[in-house]
């Protein structure tokens, strides 16, 4: 049995390793490409790779010179940050809500009162609602990432070019 578990584990590791990165690298272009590198979303623009952070870091910088694409990227970042924070806060509230029952039950040595039960359920409900709202915010923010990339690429295809980097002044 132990050998079967080891074989299954090794098979899982062997199969899942290559699944976390892209095999094809697009040609060098001013357009923005989204790839997977080592299990992390990565942006490719003009031959340079920029890892995209959990909250959209890298995307905002990659499209910063195009105002409409930047709006979408910021909407993605802000929605993801606020949604993640709201979901975590809701989970913490849900997780801590039973403490009211424990405190009330220990205080009168005969179990929690009906008021403590109702309060705990209400607090847990508020936590659940906050958790669900946070997840909805994260899910709602996701399309803005693609909107930012697509808007940027549409502008590049239309002939728009990012401003050139300033030339250093020779002394």
Description:
The protein is mainly alpha-helical. The protein has one domain. The protein has five helices and three strands, in the order αβββαααα. It has helices at 2-16, 59-62, 67-96, 98-108, 114-157; strands at residues 33-37, 40-45, 48-51. It has a three-stranded antiparallel beta sheet, with no helix packed on it. β2 (40-45) and β3 (48-51) form a beta hairpin. It is elongated and about 80 Å long.
Summarize the topology.
Blueprint: H1 2-16, E1 33-37, E2 40-45, E3 48-51, H2 59-62, H3 67-96, H4 98-108, H5 114-157
Antiparallel strand pairs: 1-2, 2-3
Based on the model shown, name its key terms.
single chain; elongated; mainly alpha; three-stranded antiparallel beta sheet; 61% helix; 9% strand; 171 residues
Number of DSSP helices? 5
The number of distinct structural domains comes to: 1
Strand content: 5-15%
**Count the strands?**
3
Contiguous low-pLDDT stretches (5 residues minimum) are none
Spatial gap, N to C terminus: 74 Å
- Kindly state the percentage of residues in helix: 55-70%
- Gyration radius from CA atoms, angstroms: 24 Å
In short:
The protein has 171 residues and is mainly α. It has helices at 2-16, 59-62, 67-96, 98-108, 114-157; strands at 33-37, 40-45, 48-51. The chain has one domain (16-157).
């Amino acid at each position: 049995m132990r050998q079967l578990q080891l074989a299954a584990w090794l098979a899982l590791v062997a199969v899942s390793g290559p699944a976390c990165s892209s095999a094809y690298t697009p040609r060098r272009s001013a357009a923005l490409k989204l790839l997977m590198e080592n299990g992390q979303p990565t942006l490719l623009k003009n031959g340079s790779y920029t890892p995209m952070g959990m909250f959209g870091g890298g995307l905002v910088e990659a499209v910063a010179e195009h105002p409409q694409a930047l709006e979408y990227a910021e909407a993605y970042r802000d929605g993801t940050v606020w949604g993640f924070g709201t979901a975590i806060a809701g989970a913490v509230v849900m997780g801590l809500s039973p403490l009211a029952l424990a405190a009330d039950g220990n205080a009168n040595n005969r179990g929690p009162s009906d008021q403590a039960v109702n309060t705990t359920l209400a607090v847990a409900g508020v936590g659940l609602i906050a958790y669900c709202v946070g997840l909805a915010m994260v899910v709602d923010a996701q399309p803005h990432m693609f909107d930012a990339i697509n808007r940027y690429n549409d502008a590049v295809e239309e002939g728009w070019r990012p401003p050139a980097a300033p030339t250093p002044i020779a002394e």
